[in-house]
Amino acid sequence: MKKFEEKTYETETIYKGKIVQLDIDSVTLPDGNTSKRELIRHPGAVAVIAITEEGKLVCVEQYRKPMEKSIIEIPAGKLEPGEEPKTCALRELEEETGYTSDDLEFITSFYTSPGFADEIVHLYFTDQIKPMEEQPDGDEDEFVEQIELTVEEAEALEKEERIHDAKTAYAILYMKLRNAR
Amino acid sequence: MKKFEEKTYETETIYKGKIVQLDIDSVTLPDGNTSKRELIRHPGAVAVIAITEEGKLVCVEQYRKPMEKSIIEIPAGKLEPGEEPKTCALRELEEETGYTSDDLEFITSFYTSPGFADEIVHLYFTDQIKPMEEQPDGDEDEFVEQIELTVEEAEALEKEERIHDAKTAYAILYMKLRNAR
């Protein structure tokens, strides 16, 4: 769907980094006027809603520099170039939590900030996880701590803003809905 | 919580735009090594889950430049400097849909991309809406079309990726959970 399309007549790349690229597109609006759009280019990401045998949500706590605080999130990570989302989801689950799974089910995908960024999150679900025999290495500049939460614990942490991101808020509703069935 | 804190020893501002600012922070990691963090600064946003008397979700379709497609989302918008989130939520609901409400309830807030951006979305709910007598003006470079969806219609559109963003995916689960009660 291209309703209200904004046609680009010029792109200026301001910055190309390790994670994001910043472009400024000059566009023609549907009414013929022009405007500028600030666009963050991102390789995309995956996240996993993993539920233990006891019905707990597997999470990791990590420091998030943009907010200068550590928050508790479901396992997630960036896609490597050419990587299949499902392969990436399994890799991130293993690296961040030490669990593995033969049964990752795709739920949905969503853009996180459609107004200014093209970051997409591919979301997977599993309630079939087992501890790995040997814990794989994660990224060398990533420090995470694992934590497993009942839905009540997760909701309490969300009220305290220690769970404070979109994909984990989504995961909590997903769990509640699953428990309600 | 500052677990695994990354201390900044230098900040370089690469770009300051209308919507985003890009900073590169040089940081000291918990193990004493150093790294760089690419950080998108954003003023924050609001979104509204508004339900009509018939139980439909009020949405708007608009072109989203980062993905080069138009998607259907719940009403949302950026905070103006100093603006209260609730005031902003009511303003965006009125501007984008022509509905108003005396009864906006705060649900939760979440960061959209905690790995690289500080954009936060403050989310409100209302099932008490009424059409405004006079439609207010929206942003001059914003073109939106209103659409009202049953939860089944919304889910079908999500499968087709015409609903394709985090806050609207959250809104669909929120509606389903509310209907399940």
UniProtKB/TrEMBL annotation, chains A, B:
Keywords: Hydrolase. The lineage of its organism: Bacteria, Bacillati, Bacillota, Bacilli, Bacillales. Belongs to the Nudix hydrolase family. GO terms for biological process: nucleoside phosphate metabolic process; ribose phosphate metabolic process. The keyword Hydrolase applies. It comes from Halobacillus trueperi. The keyword Transcription does not apply. InterPro entries: Nudix_hydrolase (IPR020476), NUDIX_hydrolase-like_dom_sf (IPR015797), NUDIX_hydrolase_CS (IPR020084), NUDIX_hydrolase_dom (IPR000086). Its cofactor is Mg(2+). This is NUDIX hydrolase. GO terms for molecular function: pyrophosphatase activity. It holds the Pfam family NUDIX. GO terms for cellular component: cytosol. It comes from the Bacteria. PROSITE patterns: NUDIX (PS51462), NUDIX_BOX (PS00893). Residues 40-171 form the Nudix hydrolase domain.
